[in-house]
Write a structure and sequence with these properties.
The structure is a homotrimer. Chain A is α+β, with helices and mostly antiparallel strands. Helices cover 24% and strands 40% of the residues of chain A. Chain A contains three helices and eight strands; from the N terminus they run ββαββααββββ.
Chain lengths: 143, 143, 143
């Protein structure tokens, strides 16, 4: 087995859920060398998260954003951590709900995903800026 | 270290939370060859999820289902992605909350879980059908 | 690549979200031997969870606790699994929302985290006691 780690930067995105499978793959051409394994994708921030979800209909991403805003409302009266704006504490909460990393199986040099699956960058801040990820691939190299 | 990947199919289950530890283990007898490592279990769908939780009292799984239906209600008026039924968009949201994969430690040829832990298949659709999983085991083979 | 697994015990903590990065690191000095890889940290309980979040302002952890108590209320009338106390079923639900493990990238002998990131032990029980974790490190040893 072999292990490879790369730090990559995703371009700045507006608040919401974004499909980034291809943007991630563009940064890790080395995945082609692995026959089988896993890719661990980790975001080095606490106000944006990563998920796996539906890759086709953009309204799924829109409805995700709407639901998470209802489930973690900015106008709750119990937040004390507010000095970075009303969207900051809610971003931390959403990050712990969704998660800071995803792990994907690798097969034959690419992600082994279902037909309708893609990687989401979930940008919870109004102005989050570019986001840094650490991708660690562990697996068997092709013969 | 060695890495092994298998695709397995879990039988169709009704909507709800299901304990599937033994059904998963039945499909991966190769785990017995590993002395130490991790098993990454990934579901290739976006309307069902995987979790680790209590393995004894069935009312825990029932109450999980009830709570997630309250927290992600089907009668919310803001869903646009509705052409696959009212249970579809809520299934995508629940999947991002719970997660598309679990990673379990392996020790002495089996999962190294706590006494009360088991693997849950969380079936969020009314009629989800059978579900495909990718299991990737990475670790040290027994001597 | 090499793989190492240790079981460690975190000291008993009150209900709430706790920063435990240093407490975890103290138990795994072997991480220093790895140049690159991942650390999988797994909690062997179903009423406490692990997360990655903000490591600086304690009110973030307080507000997490408050929000999760609102999102998963103990006074809901639909819980049947109540014989272990009102804080038990809610603890199981919070655990499936937040997750039973975190996976962190390793680089140059330590976790490769963002500046503001730390490991949270999320203690959902009123009296959870000490908590057992399984840490599995997989990666390349330093030359």
């Amino acid at each position: 087995m072999s292990c490879l780690q790369k730090e990559i930067t995703l371009s700045s995105k507006p608040r919401g859920f974004h499909l980034v499978t291809n943007e991630v793959l563009k940064h890790i051409p080395e995945i082609k060398n692995f026959s089988v394994g896993v890719a661990h994708i980790f975001i080095k921030h606490t106000s944006a998260s990563l998920s796996i979800n539906e890759n086709a209909d953009p309204t799924v991403r829109d409805n995700m954003e709407t639901h998470f805003n209802v489930m973690v409302p900015e106008d709750a009266n119990y937040y004390q951590h507010t000095f970075e704006g009303l969207d900051d504490m809610t971003s931390h909460i959403k990050t712990s709900i969704i998660g800071s990393s995803v792990t994907l199986p690798i097969k034959n040099g690419s992600f082994n995903l279902g037909t309708w699956q893609g990687i989401y960058l979930c940008e919870h801040r109004n102005h989050g800026g570019s986001r840094r990820l650490v991708v660690t691939i562990s697996g068997e190299l092709k013969a």
